[in-house]
Specification:
This protein is mainly β. Helix content is 0%, strand content 42%.
C-alpha cells in the first residue's frame, strides 16, 4: 500500500456555516485549529483558510506586552490573541500560535506564527 502526498497542508478548505460572510484576513476557528481567511467566504460557501505561517496585523488583546516565543490563546468571543490563559472561556483555542515579533501592551495588533497541537476549552 502506498501513501501519496495530497498537499503541503498549509491551506484548508473551510465550509462557512456561520450565518455571515467571513472576510479575508479574519481569524477562523475550525474545531481545534485556528487559521486566517485568505479570501472572503460567503455564508454557505467554502473558501481557503491558511493554517500555517506567519501573519502580521493580527488582532491582539491590549493590556499585556508580547515577547517573542510566548504561547498565545485565541479568544474566540473577540477573535483576538492573548498571552494569558487566566481568562479562558468555553470555545477558546490554546496552543494555536506563538508570538513572532514583540509587541507593546497598548498595541492592538501583533505578528504571530500559527502552530498545531491545539486544544479547545470546554
Amino acid at each position: 500500500m502506498t501513501t501519496k502526498l495530497q498537499q503541503d497542508g498549509n491551506v484548508i478548505l473551510h465550509a462557512n456555516a456561520s450565518g455571515s460572510t467571513i472576510t479575508s484576513g479574519s481569524v477562523v476557528k475550525m474545531n481545534n485549529i485556528v487559521g486566517i481567511a485568505l479570501v472572503d467566504i460567503a455564508d454557505g460557501s467554502s473558501g481557503a483558510v491558511q493554517i500555517r505561517g506567519v501573519f502580521s496585523g493580527v488582532p491582539k488583546v491590549t493590556g499585556n506586552a508580547w515577547t517573542v516565543g510566548s504561547k498565545l490563546v485565541c479568544d474566540v468571543s473577540t477573535s483576538k490573541f492573548d498571552t494569558t490563559a487566566a481568562s479562558l472561556a468555553t470555545g477558546d483555542v490554546t496552543g494555536c500560535a506563538i508570538v513572532f515579533e514583540a509587541a507593546g501592551s497598548s498595541d492592538t495588533t501583533g505578528v504571530i506564527l500559527l502552530t498545531h497541537g491545539n486544544t479547545t476549552v470546554t
